[in-house]
Amino acid sequence: MAFSEFRPLDESSLIEYIKAVPSLSEKLGNKFHDIKIKEVGDGNLNFVYIVVGSSGSFVIKQALPYIRCIGESWPMTKERAYFEAVALRKHGQLCPNHVPDVYHFDRTMSLIGMRYLEPPHIILRKGLIAGIEYPLLADHVSEYMAKTLFGTSLLCNSTTVHKASVAEFCGNVELCRLTEQVVFSDPYKVSEYNRWTSPHLDHDAEAIREDNILKAEIAELKTMFIERTQALVHGDLHTGSIMVTQESTQVIDPEFAFYGPMGFDIGAFLGNLMLAFFSQDGHAVEGNDRKAYKEWILRTIEETWNLFHKKFVALWEQKKEEGPGEAYLPGIYNNSEVVQLVQSKYLSQLLHDSLGFGAAKMIRRIVGVAHVEDFESISDPTKRAACERPALELAKLLLKERRNFKSISQLISAIRQIQ
Amino acid sequence: MAFSEFRPLDESSLIEYIKAVPSLSEKLGNKFHDIKIKEVGDGNLNFVYIVVGSSGSFVIKQALPYIRCIGESWPMTKERAYFEAVALRKHGQLCPNHVPDVYHFDRTMSLIGMRYLEPPHIILRKGLIAGIEYPLLADHVSEYMAKTLFGTSLLCNSTTVHKASVAEFCGNVELCRLTEQVVFSDPYKVSEYNRWTSPHLDHDAEAIREDNILKAEIAELKTMFIERTQALVHGDLHTGSIMVTQESTQVIDPEFAFYGPMGFDIGAFLGNLMLAFFSQDGHAVEGNDRKAYKEWILRTIEETWNLFHKKFVALWEQKKEEGPGEAYLPGIYNNSEVVQLVQSKYLSQLLHDSLGFGAAKMIRRIVGVAHVEDFESISDPTKRAACERPALELAKLLLKERRNFKSISQLISAIRQIQ
Fold it and tell me: Does residue B35 sit within a domain?
């Protein structure tokens, strides 16, 4: 270890650090004369350095004790790097195809060394704004979600294993509190942090703050978010936490990881695809009306859920043979009828949770503190508001009516109807 | 501290121990010549000594590393005493009127020194079997449940406080696993531990093991039991964990305490009152048909819920003034209509959970490993089975139909109808 106490790195101290850490310097073939370092942290929270040498490469991610995009005025524990590293490793074991390798973790320095996702990997959100189709996206993300969520739940593990891990991730409470505030609280009250396309959406934002039914629904989801230790969720699975090429899909940045409801991850992904969908009209240009692309997004939403459903049930069936988790013992769930019944109840509940959390994520991105580039990159505010409003309307509908959705195709119909 | 490592005490080593512990010997006015020690552990798990001197008294409870009633063949961590002591102190702070004082705790020895609940305190279950009315019972138990459950929930606390305590009680996992097995698993499958009044209830026990709908319901409750960290529950709040006189009600033995669903405690109490109700015909004798007593039990069930509801909502209202918990921020829940809406949803959900868990506790006491004296003391098996069967029928109905119950009076009607 290079340093005995925390210190924020810059490009020159980073080189010193790398030289002192064998697992990193070996990645570069111990050749340092030609390495190139680039700071690329475009996220909200951390510093990220790409380190490339002639013999290898990696990424160094360092958490600082505040939120980068706001500054030292919003402190945030750097211990989040520890939980990110533990989650990356756990999810990586369960789904190595879609989680980058961790080469090195230094808790004192809140620093992770991990695989550099080389070009042409880009952030999925940027691909969606550019109108690029990713034919394997639904397949890959559904695999990631099914394997990580199933594999860290009581469908797979004993209560003993489960509770030990739950206890550990209770330590990531500061990040959970941030989500509680920005997703489940601020958008529903007057807050200095809220913003929206104004004056266009002034009434829409106000309507949300005055909608008692909506506020009762968000309370249930917030409580479920805090109380329900269903699985080790990524905790921030939007389209900015996924890097893609045509062949590869890699999930990054699980620093918000904790034991929470599975629907929070599934909803984050689906909700952000819905935001991408509604933003497309704002990106239409002559010769590219984005109509076909919108259809691809809808297919991806539908396929993601359907493939997730299939893979999740397959893992459940497979696990029965291997020795199951605590939740459904084969001595009790011992005939195909009861197995089908409990699986169908479980997945139906999960769809409802996912729609609810997805809706909450949509609302907060339109009237809360942190917005998405899908909409922000539409420079004409009238055009932007015209994209945002139907997204908001859909989200409100989903929050209130999610329990009536029997299948994902009903969601697709609802999206079509509202646009 | 008297001993540097764990050692099971007997009456003579207990005296040595007391002499070495100031907080205990002071309770006896440091007079040891006239003290009387009586071992009274009639529970399933621990050794309990009553220590009475001329100047004072206390109880010493020591956990051994196995389940007392089964023996060393069923090991069980003695660390449960630690969780019992923490829960007694926490619940005692929140509701000092109904939780005995803890004078001393020794983690190494798994030993608690606490208030001796002097005669005429008896175990409530014995009072119910004897047909004794306790006019303050509903008032006292509802106060205990409202204060301890509200006070350890997100209605009262920040997420930071909540998750720290959740993490700690994840350590009591062995006791949770015991509950999972005996309440939520064994009764629904073939298990060497199950027993029932045979052959009378052979078909009834089999029907439970073959009821797919019932097994789907118990799966949901089991998962909620493990996953949902709603409040620090007692974890074993049956009528054997409550000591009573006409004026006093004291809740003891929270060694199963953990962060779980509130309905598990409420259901345990109500479910055991229902067992007491259905056992009464077995205790009827000439000149005392127990009819009036059954009515008192029904009134107590109804009042317990209604008083709990009232006190819980009052705590919620009061807490709003003082600075609320994380779940319902006043900036969002800012008009009386929305407050009423969320409170009514919360309590309605809680009633359903309570009925479900209550039903699960009834079933396990009739076809599972550990039975209740209410029925066991009916020596004629035909008579006993005739009491047990309607209790089982009601429990099955509640498990399946609990979501249709809008008020506690519906429960009372269902009980009357089935008996």
Answer: yes
